[in-house]
Design goal:
Blueprint: H1 30-47, E1 63-75, E2 78-104, E3 110-138, E4 141-164, E5 171-195, E6 201-227, E7 230-232, E8 245-267, E9 273-298, E10 322-327, E11 333-366, E12 369-387, E13 399-420, E14 423-434, H2 438-441, E15 445-448, E16 453-456, E17 464-475, E18 482-500, E19 507-528, E20 539-553, H3 556-566, E21 572-573, E22 581-591, E23 596-605, E24 608-611, E25 619-621, E26 626-635, E27 639-646, E28 652-657, E29 665-670, E30 674-681
Parallel strand pairs: 16-19
Antiparallel strand pairs: 1-2, 2-3, 2-29, 3-4, 4-5, 5-6, 6-7, 6-8, 8-9, 9-11, 10-11, 11-12, 12-13, 13-14, 14-17, 15-16, 17-18, 18-19, 19-20, 20-21, 20-22, 22-23, 23-26, 24-25, 25-28, 26-27, 27-30, 28-29
Length: 683
Amino acid sequence: TRALPEPLAVDDLVIPPRVSNSGLPSSANYERNQAQAQVLEDQTLVMGSTQFGPTTRTAPPNNSFGVALGDTVKVFDRDLGMFGGLTYKRNFLYLEGTSRRYLPGADGELEARKDFADTRGITEANWAAVANVAFRMSENHEFNFNFLFNQNAEDVARTQVGTITDDPEYTYYLNRLHWTERNLTTYQLKGSHTIPEAAGLKVDWLGALSGTTQEEPDARFFNYRSQGSSFEPDHASLPTPNKPTRYFRSLDENNRNLKLDLTQPFEQWSGLESALKAGLYDSTSDRSFLDREIYYEGLYGSRDAYPFGGDPNELFPPGSLGYTAVTNSNGRINYTWNRYIQSRESFYQGDQQVSAGYLMLDLPVWERLKLIGGARYETTLIEVASRSYLPNQNTGQTTNQTTLDEAAVLPAAGLVFNLVTNMNVRVAFSETLARPSFRELAAYRSYDPLLDEILEGNPNLQTSSIRNFDLRWEWFPQPGDVLAVSLFYKDLADAIERRFLTIGGEVVSFVNRESAEVYGVELEARRGLGFITGQLSEFSVGLNAALMQSEVPLTAEEIFNRTEFLGDTATTRPLYDQSPYILNVDFTFDRPVWGTTATVAFNVFGPRIVIAGLNTPDVYEQPTPSLDVVITKRFGDHFKLQFTAKNLLDPVYQRTYGEDADAPAYSSYQRGRLFGISLGYQY
């Protein structure tokens, strides 16, 4: 029902411009203009009228269902394992909050340019299927086939109402109806073989085919402004899009992976078990994306035939689509167009191939010291071609081509020192890569609903490289328990960040940072409390905490902008998307004789940059501490009852201009507390 009508769902769609008259009957243009007007009216009518604004109703409770079956049987006296599962869930979310945009004022203080009340209703539906078949031909040979299917849909209805300082006497209304449907299908075949005749050589191989699609059919954006009884749905000052617009977007991506790993065990000079490993990897991906934008031109004023009265769902009263024709005395046909469509397209096509081979050694130097080291040789070829109706702000071109053709040797080395039987010290070094994605490279501009900004790719992006240094001490007091402390340092070159491109902050793109560094300490603990007293043997606590420091040198342009507009003379800032701390804690009670388990989990992260500023402070995502409780009770051998309470603290999800929580708000909302109950049957 959301599909683009078939007459318009063609390659190289052409929608003719508006024709004002047919010309004189004797002229050469007469029939051509008549035909052109008729084509435009037919295309407008086939699009039909549509709902442009949300409606309100009460959502039902969230619900979900799952079933899984598995067994192992004998086939030709060999083990054949089978497993299958199916899940379905549907969730509803209602969010109320604010959305603001700021610019520096004359005195360097931030002044609100846009201030909107923001309301969203979100419906999510997801269902997934998984199937696995494993066949063990013998003790040394096993085959596995895996199938995964995942279908997800999200329906978002959103309104924003507020003011823009450029026209303070007007109230602005922004309406969005946005359906997104994603699909992932994966087929995977793998095998594992041990060859005793080759000194125990182990061979592991894998082949996988994956296909993913993303459809955004008939996403509707309708912005207008009002002053008293005057309503303007088509004005240059409106936020993008400044006309009633319907988007039809489709993405298709296919991926093939091939992998081979060889492990040759051997005994080193002292008779300790060692291994030499080698492998090959090849991955190819291709993606195609098309965005077809249908927008409405027309007459909406109070004196026009079909004035707009402020209700987005009454934009198309009967008779308002197409033209009204009047033939004058000399036979010329004059057309008065009420509402009619126009279109524009953007697309990108991407191909990627990554091929690699590695060689590594797992060698005990002596009983308490192990060396693990090797290198990976990797080649990357990424090609992205794109075309957009707007020039890309990074290149100034509407048509762009990117080619990344690179090769790299990535070494890795580590030492594991066994202090005592259950205690190790690890030292490691490695080099890794982070490639830009197709979307980051595509010179295409679109609204990003997660970021709530206009997002544009950058064809000039380069691959990031990272050098990693790690030192870790770990202790395993008893099975299932661990206590570990790690120190880490990362040196990054060409790290990819999101940054504002425009002074007004309407467009966000991706940029490489010349250099950056991250360092810190991590604490990991999982311990049963029975070591304190036997009365606490049914309790356990888990902890993962990290303290981090990151630093990115600012460019000369950024230093000038911050000094000129903000009076900020800092020459460095934290790395994009890097929190100064992360904390996860869980406390569990488990009494098997009661069939009862209860877990309390808490997590929080520190403020992190989500968009780097241009002439405003960086936009930070503020901490949102989460507290969840899960209680499970088993009845007999078959039934399980579970109660969940999530987001009990109900924090404000807030983004701010600057690191401080009381800084000017970029956006804010609350998700609400969520309580659930489920019943399971197992046999």
